[in-house]
């Protein structure tokens, strides 16, 4: 029997019992749809989280003020400003592998332009900020060293601030009042999007560090060159762990902390967030693989069951074919093709259902859905292999029938 004849016979048998065939394919449909939808949704969610974490900057750690003790009372982390811009300069100068050490201060402020106002986050930063955060100026220019040294009242604004205050107007050269201090806008930052905790990173205004301490954040940070925190960027991920140990030793030395005193600073490795997200993604992938495997196994068993029923129902037909000259391998091929066709059709329907479900769920959840062509191809191929594997036993049983015994059965 030629392949085309076998395919035609298989399709004819499937069409003769359309409802049963559809119910048989249901397990494969559900399994493949689950694979496509879950992989697409999971990939989209992981991609979103990864982009949010990467938006902070690669190979980055943040040094913040730690616990301090006054009069026997432990005031808790961040209770006092124990870091200075001189600490940042020392870290960049003395710690191997550091490419940027960006001290900054941060606060909330009402900003006003014309008749519009908006409450936003204001950062006082230096030149290393854009290097550490990998954040470029999209329009205009960045601060120059002289502006930072003199603490001039110039500002860079994020996209959200531009939309809220200026709309379609060009903000470059305009005067923005921050806590009633007039800052001239010299640049607009490239969009960053949401952070890993859902904060809008573009809702921000950057001013020179000295101007931020003296004019925006408050006089408590203007004493002793104090800063709120320091972003430290390393050249590679391998430099981070030894670099953290060296930073800790350097800061303890600079802050004159004895061996019996705890750190008055804290160092957080932001790269660990990426690794944690990767571990969660791998766990999710294993879970999805298990779910898909169970679904396809159930679908395959369903195909085997129905094919066995089909062999029993068509015993006389099989006997007649063998009696008129069909070879056992022709019967084997016919039933194998029938089982594989059932599985492949179920896989194709499952792909359509899975893609639709992935897009619908992603739209409702508000994250991207990544439907990989490779995942679709693998799902359809695997569903076909399921048909071959689970259809082989019924096909072999049909091929081994004795034509005389088969014709005698009613």
The best one-word shape is elongated
Low-confidence stretches: 69-79
Distance between the termini: 26 Å
Class from helix and strand fractions? alpha+beta
**Average pLDDT level:** 79
Strand percentage, roughly? 15-25%
Number of distinct beta strands:
14
The quaternary organization reads as: single chain
Please tell me the total number of domains. Answer: 2
Largest beta-sheet characterization = 6 strands, mixed, barrel
How many helix segments?
13
Please state how the strands of the largest beta sheet are arranged side by side: 5-6-11-8-10-9
Q: Radius of gyration, rounded?
A: 34 Å
Q: Provide the helix percentage.
A: 55-70%
What is the string of SSEs from the N terminus onward?
HHEEEEHEEHEHEHEEEHEEHEHHHHH
Structure summary:
By secondary structure, the chain is of the alpha+beta class. It has helices spanning 3-16, 18-54, 85-94, 128-133, 145-150, 159-165, 209-217, 240-254, 271-313, 315-323, 328-365, 373-399, 403-408; strands at 60-65, 67-70, 73-77, 83-84, 98-113, 116-125, 137-140, 154-157, 175-178, 181-189, 204-208, 226-227, 229-234, 265-269. It folds into two domains: 3-53 and 276-408, no CATH class; 60-269, no CATH class.
Describe the protein's architecture and organization:
- With 410 residues, this protein is an alpha+beta fold.
- The protein has two domains: 3-53 and 276-408, no CATH class; 60-269, no CATH class.
- The chain contains 13 helices and 14 strands.
- The chain has helices at residues 3-16, 18-54, 85-94, 128-133, 145-150, 159-165, 209-217, 240-254, 271-313, 315-323, 328-365, 373-399, 403-408; strands at 60-65, 67-70, 73-77, 83-84, 98-113, 116-125, 137-140, 154-157, 175-178, 181-189, 204-208, 226-227, 229-234, 265-269.
- The strands form three sheets. A six-stranded mixed β-barrel has the order 5-6-11-8-10-9. A two-stranded antiparallel ribbon has the order 2-3.
- Helix 1 (3-16) crosses helix 11, helix 2 (18-54) crosses helix 11 and helix 2 (18-54) packs antiparallel against helix 12.
- The protein is elongated.
């Amino acid at each position: 029997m030629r392949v085309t004849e076998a395919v035609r016979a298989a399709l004819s048998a499937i069409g003769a019992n359309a409802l049963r065939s559809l119910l048989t394919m249901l397990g494969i449909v559900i399994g493949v749809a689950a694979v496509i939808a879950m992989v697409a949704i999971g990939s989209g969610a992981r991609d979103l989280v990864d982009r949010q974490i990467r938006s902070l900057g690669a190979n980055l750690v943040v040094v913040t003020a730690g616990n301090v003790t006054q009069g026997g009372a432990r005031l808790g982390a961040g209770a006092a400003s124990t870091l200075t811009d001189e600490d940042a300069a020392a870290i960049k100068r003395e710690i191997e592998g550091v490419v940027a050490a960006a001290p900054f201060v941060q606060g909330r402020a009402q900003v006003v332009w014309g008749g519009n106002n908006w409450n936003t986050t204001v950062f006082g930063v230096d030149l290393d900020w854009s290097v550490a955060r990998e954040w470029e100026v999209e329009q205009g220019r960045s601060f120059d060293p002289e502006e930072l040294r003199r603490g001039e009242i110039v500002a860079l604004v994020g996209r959200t601030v531009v939309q809220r205050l200026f709309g379609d107007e060009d903000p470059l050269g305009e005067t923005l009042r921050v806590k009633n201090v007039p800052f001239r806008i010299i640049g607009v930052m490239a969009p960053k999007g949401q952070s890993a905790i859902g904060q809008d990173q573009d809702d921000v205004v950057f001013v020179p560090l000295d101007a931020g301490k003296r004019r925006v954040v408050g006089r408590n940070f203007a004493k002793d060159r104090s800063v709120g925190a320091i972003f430290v960027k390393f050249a590679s991920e391998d430099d981070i762990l030894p670099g953290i140990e060296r930073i800790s030793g350097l800061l303890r030395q600079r802050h004159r902390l004895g061996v019996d005193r705890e750190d008055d600073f804290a160092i957080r490795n932001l790269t660990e967030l990426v690794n944690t997200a990767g571990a969660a993604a791998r766990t999710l992938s294993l879970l999805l693989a298990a779910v898909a495997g169970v679904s396809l196994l159930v679908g395959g068993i369903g195909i085997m069951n129905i094919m066995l029923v089909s062999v029993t129902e068509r015993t006389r037909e099989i006997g007649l074919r063998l009696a008129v000259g069909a070879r056992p391998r022709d019967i084997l091929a016919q039933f194998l093709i029938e089982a594989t066709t059932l599985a492949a059709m179920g896989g194709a329907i499952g792909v359509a259902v899975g893609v639709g479900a992935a897009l619908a769920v992603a739209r409702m959840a508000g994250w991207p859905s990544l439907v990989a062509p490779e995942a679709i191809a693998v799902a359809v191929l695997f569903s076909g292999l399921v048909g071959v594997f689970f259809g082989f036993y019924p096909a072999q049983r049909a091929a081994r029938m004795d034509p005389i015994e088969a014709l005698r059965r009613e």
